[in-house]
Amino acid sequence: MKQELHAMKQGLKAHVNRVRMSLGVGMGYLPDALSTQLMKQHYHLVGKHSAVKACKWLRESILGRRTCYKNTFYGIDSWRCVQCSPVIGCNLCCRFCWRISPEDIGIKWDEMSEPVWDEPELLVEGFLKEQRRIVSGYKGNPKADRKRWEEANRPAHVAISLIGEITMYPFLSELIDKFHRAGMSTFVVTNGTLPEKIENLSTLPTQLYMSLEAPDEETYRKTCRPKIKIAWEGVNRTLELFPSIKTRKVLRLTLVDGLNMLNPEGYAKLILKAEPDYVEPKSFVFVGGSRYNRGLELGNMPKHEEIREFAGKLSKETGYMVSDERADSRVVLLCKDREAEKKRFIQKK
């Protein structure tokens, strides 16, 4: 029995290595332990430093069930959305993050060497190829909505937000541009620590998200555990840049009870500095990476009623209007004004 188990493990290891080699993965940037763990968690690795993964809402929506809150708030078809990232590495190690962090499995920051960056063309082709591979598995499912399945094979939206800090990819403008030229809308999520990267974008996403995870530096360091010394300064510089960025902008507050869900007045000052079109106060979810040894428990997840109450305080302090909510995702949408509320739905091409 032990011999059979050993043979199975060796067979799995060999298979993972073959997949890794075929994708060009694990060549100096991704340590073997990390790429193996990512594939076990159903990440589809692309090139040397990128990945695609199906979120639960892609599955739910293809099966004719619920769509994600971005469908409710902005009209994005969940079944036509590609969730991807051109960078797996990150300069933060947020306690609430559902993604796996290299530190979670004993890999130090300096063991993640800078990759030889893949060209945007390779990534676009790889992302769409892997997305079609993900979707193909639903073809024979009798519960699948046939029309949605067919549309899922023609993605219309890209959420460049799966894992890592997106702005670390040096060809982000070109990547966004190629998706736009293909008729797809884009959401880009940044942690705001690299303002110069955002300032130098020549092509802007359809909607730019920034994660705002604390009302002050002390809370930020406890919550996000930055790996660079000037992270908080970078966040504030990005907030200052926000009003001049000519695209739709969102601040997302991932809130953890007992950690960063405090001082709404402090958050309000930062929101007013940035003047985003939308603000999303949202509960962290106790899944994935957040279950690692980061000191969090299920009880740290705020109830939706608590998120709604916190959103009300932000609304009072900022003048932003409460526009919508999704109880199953524990998130509320605040709009800057009536004009932003009217324009919140993305035009479909």
Concise synopsis of the structure shown:
This protein is an alpha/beta fold and 349 residues long.
Report what the structure shows.
- This protein is an alpha/beta fold and 349 residues long.
- It has one domain: Aldolase class I (TIM Barrel).
- Helix content is 38%, strand content 15%.
- Strands 1-2-3-4-5-6-7-8-10-9 form a ten-stranded mixed sheet, sandwiched between helices.
- Strand 5, helix 8 and strand 6 form a beta-alpha-beta unit.
- The protein starts with a helix and ends in a 7-residue tail after the last helix.
- Keywords: 4Fe-4S, Cytoplasm, Iron, Iron-sulfur, Lyase, Metal-binding, S-adenosyl-L-methionine, tRNA processing.
- It catalyses: N(1)-methylguanosine(37) in tRNA(Phe) + pyruvate + S-adenosyl-L-methionine = 4-demethylwyosine(37) in tRNA(Phe) + 5'-deoxyadenosine + L-methionine + CO2 + H2O.
- Its cofactor is [4Fe-4S] cluster.
> What is the name of the CATH architecture?
Alpha-Beta Barrel
CATH homologous superfamily title: Aldolase class I
Question: What's the arrangement of strands in the largest beta sheet?
Answer: 1-2-3-4-5-6-7-8-10-9
Rg on CA atoms, Å: 20 Å
Structural class category: alpha/beta
The helix/strand order is HHEEHHEHHEHEHEHHEHEHEEH
Number of domains: 1
Q: What is CATH's topology name?
A: TIM Barrel
Total number of strands: 10
Describe the main β-sheet briefly: 10 strands, mixed
Low-confidence stretches: 4-28
Number of helices: 13
The proportion of residues forming helix, as a percent range, comes to 25-40%
Residue-averaged pLDDT: 89
